[in-house]
Fold this sequence. Notes:
- This protein is α/β, with parallel strands linked by helices.
- 42% of the residues lie in helices and 14% in strands.
- The protein contains 10 helices and 6 strands.
- It has a 6-stranded parallel sheet with strand order 3-2-1-4-5-6, with helices on both faces.
- Strand 2, helix 3 and strand 3 (89-91) form a beta-alpha-beta unit.
- The termini are far apart.
Amino acid sequence: xxxxxxxxxxxxxxxxxxxxxxxxxxxxxxxxxxxxxxxxxxxxxxxxxxxxxxxxxxxxxxxxxxxxxxxxxxxxxxxxxxxxxxxxxxxxxxxxxxxxxxxxxxxxxxxxxxxxxxxxxxxxxxxxxxxxxxxxxxxxxxxxxxxxxxxxxxxxxxxxxxxxxxxxxxxxxxxxxxxxxxxxxxxxxxxxxxxxxxxxxxxxxxxxxxxxxxxxxxxxxxxx
Length: 224
């Protein structure tokens, strides 16, 4: 099950259901940069929906002060509810329910099983993730199941490694380049937000107001 609202959305927009964006990450916490990225990619590539998927355990990096998964899920849920004017943002807990390390190949296969093999999946990621792609589980198979949408800051362009080209092939690299977009930089990071909170500083305008309220109510990222 992707989420409780996904079937209603499909029934309401049957002609749009085949272009699905997937934005994964720890979202520790979700911030305005994440939401801005999702909005820009959705508009640019005319996606029918974007599914935010918080990782249970990220497989390729250690995240300091990773708050419990259910809190990260609830913060995303609150943020997209506040932001979701067109009803195209959704949040899924499929990686949380699966537990263990959250491998993207497993997630994409589950999404395709839910929505149908005819669906197009657009995997959204920052340019920094391009340096890690060759290390991802079953990356060749993943490249056959979905499109990679790399989001760059203007003037900055990460380049696929020779090894990645060898693994996924030139056609997948060409597709990636066609879908790559640039968005204006937002100087926000979850790491910086956690530091500000631990230092007792304000995070107003860095996260949605509802997320700031949730953090305070649940005592997350408290000063050390």
